[in-house]
């Protein structure tokens, strides 16, 4: 996850979240359900609501006593086969809080049925819970996300209130961190239960509690205001400090009252700090945000300069890394564009130049392709990890660049696939998922072309890239179909299938030409397309002399010479 500056927008983001009404919706039913819960420690019951069309709310309500008694098993962490899917390459294991896991396991059959039902729904899905109920809600959300198809129309967001940490460092690698929002009051002792400096239950050992780590975004609240953070190390420091200031007695915190209080407060306009300012805007901002969430930096003797240094370092390193990657990608694309231009100057098509390239130049271009593909696979994967709306907004900024990359690089992958003569059906057997998603997102974002758009394309067609990045795969398959027609070993059924494919291909090509969607390079004398046309024309002349189509007439008249 790319990290933004740790403090520059914490307050603004928090106010945006609070005023979105999403948190109110998540909290609204929790108190009602808790009243009816059994009065014994740590029972959790899931409730499924659909208060309005296209909105589903799943509430994990814990008994009121969950926050008044030590949790069973304390802070023990255990591994579970149920959550092995969370283990990325960087972290071979993920450990979960035993109490939360035991409750989740006890509900497994019920939750399996709920998961099946939710996977069939559309619209907004909110999963929420309070205290240990929030821990089980988070586990269920992870369980649900793992089962969801990427095309699911009902992606969840999990909002917890006053929940303890549920796992170790492995959770920070979860691809679904952005699906979680944890609301925490500075007066609530439960979120700090498993921190080594807080009043952890006596059954917990420091070796166990010291490895708990937060994941997701945290909305930290106090009577003064709130702030959002998603850096796990910073969140851990703040929770540790906050838990040391909470009174020793476990108590119920009214999050409904906290939310009402936050909504009534004016949005913070700037660093209106009590006392003298340091003269360092960055430090002042850190102090301001910490005071907003109820942490007295002077009383706690917090190392503000150390936090500032860490925040600046993270921001600087992230920006430098992103800038370097972007610069390298621009260079790689520029070199590919130069390669394409050189192929055109030599009267060779970009596709066929690479397909028939000598090994030395071929290897160099492959290096550029590999660098670009790695970058765009990562970008697509990051967009996929985000919730639908967030992912759509995230990819909008770079979709044009991603489309250009797809149209430049995928034809070269196709050339590699068919170069040896053994390739068959690239689109269904070999095409990378990131190409499919880039094409899908482009089509979703594209607007129907107007007459003015088509006129503009006609004027610029000579410099346009072929729009369908799989055009050359269709050409290669058409060549194979021609070969099948003239192969003495082909059956009648195979010849009929090949002829049908060629008819459809002709219609496809003519549609591309009429929409100015192909580059004029396809008509260069040595191109694979013209090779296909030569074979196709010969077959028609010898075996189907009376056959005609729009493309056949277009090519026979030589109209392609005026294209572009």
The CA-CA distance between the termini, in Å, is 44 Å
| Helix-residue proportion | 40-55%
- Oligomeric nature of the chains: single chain
Query: What is the radius of gyration computed over CA atoms, rounded to a whole number of angstroms?
Result: 30 Å
Tally of DSSP helical segments: 22
**Could you describe the largest sheet, including whether it forms a barrel?**
7 strands, mixed
User: What general form does the structure show?
Assistant: elongated
* β-sheet strand percentage: 5-15%
Structural class: alpha/beta
Q: Kindly report the average pLDDT value.
A: 79
The parts where pLDDT drops under 50 for at least 5 residues are 1-8, 198-209, 266-277
Strand ordering within the main sheet: 1-2-5-6-7-8-9
Give the number of DSSP strands. 9
Structure explained in plain terms:
By secondary structure, the chain is α/β, with parallel strands linked by helices. 52% of the residues lie in helices and 9% in strands. The chain contains 22 helices and nine strands. The strands form two sheets. Strands 1-2-5-6-7-8-9 form a seven-stranded mixed sheet, sandwiched between helices. A hairpin with a 4-residue loop joins strand 8 (217-221) and strand 9 (226-229). Helix 11 (304-345) crosses helix 13 (359-385), helix 13 crosses helix 14 and helix 19 (471-486) packs antiparallel against helix 20. The longest helix has 42 residues, at 304-345. The radius of gyration is 30 Å and the shape is elongated. Mean pLDDT is 79; it is low at 1-8, 198-209 and 266-277.
């Amino acid at each position: 996850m790319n990290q933004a500056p740790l403090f520059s927008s914490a307050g603004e983001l928090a106010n945006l979240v609070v005023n979105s009404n999403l948190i109110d919706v998540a909290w609204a039913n929790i108190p009602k359900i808790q009243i009816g819960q059994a009065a014994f420690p740590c029972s959790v019951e899931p409730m499924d609501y659909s208060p309005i069309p296209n909105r589903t709310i799943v509430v994990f309500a814990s008994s009121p006593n969950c926050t008044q008694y030590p949790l069973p098993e304390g802070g023990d962490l255990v591994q579970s086969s149920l959550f092995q899917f969370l283990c990325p390459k960087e972290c071979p294991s993920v450990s979960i809080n035993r109490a939360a896991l035991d409750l989740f396991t006890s509900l497994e059959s019920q939750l399996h049925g709920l998961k099946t039902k939710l996977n069939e729904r559309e619209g907004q899905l909110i999963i929420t819970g309070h205290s240990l109920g929030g821990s089980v809600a988070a586990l269920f959300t992870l369980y649900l996300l793992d089962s969801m198809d990427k095309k699911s129309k009902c992606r969840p967001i999990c909002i917890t209130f006053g929940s303890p940490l549920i796992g170790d460092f492995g959770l920070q690698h979860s691809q679904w961190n952005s699906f979680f929002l944890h609301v925490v009051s500075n007066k609530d002792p439960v979120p700090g239960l498993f921190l080594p400096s807080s009043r952890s239950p006596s059954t917990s050992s420091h070796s166990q509690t010291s490895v708990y780590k937060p994941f997701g975004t945290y909305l930290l609240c106090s009577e003064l205001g709130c702030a959002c953070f998603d850096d796990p190390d910073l969140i851990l420091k703040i929770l540790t400090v906050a838990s040391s200031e909470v009174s020793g007695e476990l108590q119920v915190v009214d999050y409904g009252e906290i939310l009402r209080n936050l909504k009534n407060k004016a949005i913070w306009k700037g660093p209106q700090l009590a006392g003298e300012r340091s003269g360092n805007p960055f430090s002042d901002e850190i102090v301001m945000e910490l005071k907003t969430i109820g942490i007295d930096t002077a009383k706690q003797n917090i190392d503000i300069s150390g936090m500032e240094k860490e925040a600046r370092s993270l921001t600087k390193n992230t920006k430098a890394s992103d800038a370097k990657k972007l610069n390298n990608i621009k260079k790689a694309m520029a070199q590919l564009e130069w390669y394409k231009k050189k192929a055109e100057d030599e009267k060779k098509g970009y596709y066929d130049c690479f397909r028939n390239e000598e090994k030395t130049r071929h290897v160099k271009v492959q290096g550029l392709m590999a660098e670009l593909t790695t970058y765009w696979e990562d970008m697509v994967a990051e967009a996929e990890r985000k919730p639908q709306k967030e992912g759509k907004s995230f990819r909008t900024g770079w979709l044009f660049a991603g489309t250009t990359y797809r149209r430049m690089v995928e034809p070269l992958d196709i050339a590699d696939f068919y170069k040896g003569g053994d390739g068959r059906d690239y689109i269904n057997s070999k095409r990378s998922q990131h190409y499919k998603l880039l094409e899908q997102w482009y089509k979703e974002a594209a607007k129907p072309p107007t007459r003015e758009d088509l006129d503009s394309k006609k004027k610029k067609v000579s410099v346009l890239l072929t729009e369908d990045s799989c055009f050359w795969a269709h050409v290669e398959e058409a060549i194979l179909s021609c070969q099948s027609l003239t192969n003495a070993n082909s059956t009648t059924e195979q010849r009929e299938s090949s002829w049908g494919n060629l008819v459809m291909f002709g219609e496809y090509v003519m549609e591309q030409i009429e929409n100015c969607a192909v580059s004029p390079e396809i008509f260069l004398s040595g191109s694979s397309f013209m090779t296909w046309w030569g074979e196709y024309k010969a077959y028609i002349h010898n075996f189907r002399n009376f056959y005609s189509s729009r493309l056949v007439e277009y090519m026979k008249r030589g109209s392609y010479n005026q294209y572009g």
